[in-house]
Design a protein that fits this description.
This protein has 188 residues and is of the alpha/beta class. The chain has a single domain, classed as Alpha/Beta hydrolase fold, catalytic domain (Rossmann fold, 3-Layer(aba) Sandwich), CATH 3.40.50. The protein is 41% helix and 16% strand. The protein has 6 helices and 6 strands; from the N terminus they run E-H-E-H-E-H-H-E-E-H-E-H. It has a 6-stranded parallel sheet with strand order 2-1-3-4-5-6. Helix 5 links the parallel strand 5 and strand 6. The longest helix has 29 residues. The protein is globular, with a radius of gyration of 16 Å. The N terminus is likely disordered.
Length: 188
Amino acid sequence: MTSLVLPAPNLFSIVTTSGPGTRAPAWKALLNWPRFGDTHVDYAADTPSQRNLWAARLDEAVRRADKPVLLIASGESCSAAAWWARLSPADYVSKVAGALLFAPRGPDGDQFASPRTPLPFPSAVVERNTTRRALALAESWGSGMLEDGWNAEGDSAWQQAQAAVMRLTARVVEREMRVARAFDVIVP
């Protein structure tokens, strides 16, 4: 089985989040990626105080990153990441260059509501078998959607994932260029 290697890994700090009881996060099961990134934040939110503690830990992981952050979430933590992105301080969220949201759970699976507004950074929803719910979440978050389903065997999954990461990376570069132009850092 071929594993996916992120292009130019030195460009991003990888921050992952998934449930602490998850034996294999969706990105591991679908693509045979490593279980954790540069930093991992376990997601558990049975109460508002636990949710807020998780958000503070994610704030800290993003704040401590020495490069732009690629946020990778799985399951219930996808909606939590969307909640975090809309409600955390802009200086933390602005460090996130993009997100890959694997197998997000819909409203029935979430303990806490997630805003249904576009995320402030480029993102893609990755789902083994695309559902209406996943498409609706991707649309509400302004995320790209991988609609072809995933097959973790052979080169097909690797090629699909590599193409998705390359598209996300291109959107990250476009976003960074817009920000740089807005601050007159570069000439258009």
